Structures are given as structure tokens and as C-alpha cells.
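Re: that backbone. C-alpha cells:
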């Protein structure tokens, strides 16, 4: 079979690498709160995302901006969910997984998903009145985001790594 055919072994190796890469890019780590259960039928995929800091022309108390577009799939064909929210996420440096801080999200999503349904929502970081953490300009970061139903029912997932940008306002005078 494949033991003696180098082309076959190379193809199997490529498939294994591709499967591993797809697993890492799925963004779903399926961590559920052990006491909560109930959210294991939900999977989350990050469709788009960015995180940056607005440092020009004047640095606000909380310069960090973040928006994520998420697709939530309810794999349960018999049960719907309501009262879901995406309240917050922790931001980590990609190179060493050091936690920088927690950001809170807001959304216009109603928190409901029907049986077997797919929903797309956008969450945006809430601007705080004080600095949450020093913007890591030029570094890569990822977020661990929570989706919750109650205080005991939650599920976390990780986003891909994003370059933390700190664009310079082209119209500002130096």
C-alpha cells in the first residue's frame, strides 16, 4: 500500500499537515464551563476581526478598538437557545500567551438561535473611561472570547492571531 510508495507517503503527510492546520484555524476550542453544560451544541467561527489602537491625534483614555464578526452554529436540530451573549474576551500576546487585559463587547444580536440554525453577528468593543492595557503596537495578539447563557453556562473560543495596529493619522501635523 503506502509503505513502499514515496508519492503515497508524501500525499498522506500533506493531508495530515492540512488537517492539523485546519484544526488550528477553526478557532473553536470547545471549552465549556463544566458546571454549565448545555452550550456544547454551539460552534463559533470568526469570519472577520481586527484589533487596533487610536493614538492620533489625541490619545483617548481607552484607545483600543476591536470588532469581530462571528458565525454561530447550533448543531442541535431539536433545541433552540435564547438569552445568549458575548460579553467579553481576554487579549493575549501571541508570542508568549501573556494576558494583556479583558475587553467588553456590545452587539445588536438578540441572543437567540433556532434549532439547527446558523447566525452571524458583529461584536464591538465597548470604549471604557480608563486605559485597559498598554496597546502592544506591532505585536500579534489573539483573544479568548466567551459566549454565555447564564453565569454557569459559558463556552470559550480563541480567535486567530491579529497584528495589533496603531495607525498614524495621515492628516495630523507633526
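Recovered sequence:
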Amino acid at each position: 500500500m503506502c509503505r513502499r510508495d514515496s508519492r503515497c507517503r508524501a500525499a498522506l503527510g500533506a493531508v495530515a499537515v492540512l488537517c492539523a492546520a485546519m484544526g488550528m484555524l477553526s478557532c473553536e476550542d470547545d471549552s465549556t464551563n463544566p458546571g454549565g453544560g448545555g452550550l456544547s451544541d454551539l460552534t463559533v467561527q470568526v469570519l472577520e476581526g481586527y484589533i487596533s489602537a487610536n493614538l492620533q491625534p489625541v490619545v483617548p483614555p481607552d484607545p483600543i478598538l476591536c470588532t469581530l464578526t462571528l458565525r454561530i452554529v447550533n448543531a442541535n436540530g431539536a433545541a433552540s437557545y435564547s438569552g445568549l451573549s458575548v460579553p467579553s474576551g481576554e487579549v493575549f500576546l501571541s508570542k508568549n500567551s501573556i494576558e494583556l487585559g479583558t475587553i467588553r463587547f456590545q452587539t445588536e444580536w438578540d441572543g437567540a438561535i433556532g434549532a439547527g440554525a446558523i447566525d452571524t453577528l458583529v461584536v464591538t468593543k465597548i470604549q471604557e473611561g480608563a486605559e485597559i492595557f498598554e496597546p502592544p503596537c506591532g505585536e500579534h495578539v489573539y483573544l479568548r472570547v466567551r459566549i454565555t447563557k447564564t453565569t454557569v453556562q459559558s463556552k470559550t473560543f480563541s480567535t486567530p492571531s491579529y497584528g495589533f495596529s496603531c495607525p498614524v493619522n495621515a492628516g495630523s501635523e507633526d
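The two ends are 68 Å apart (CA to CA). DSSP finds one helix and nine strands in the chain.
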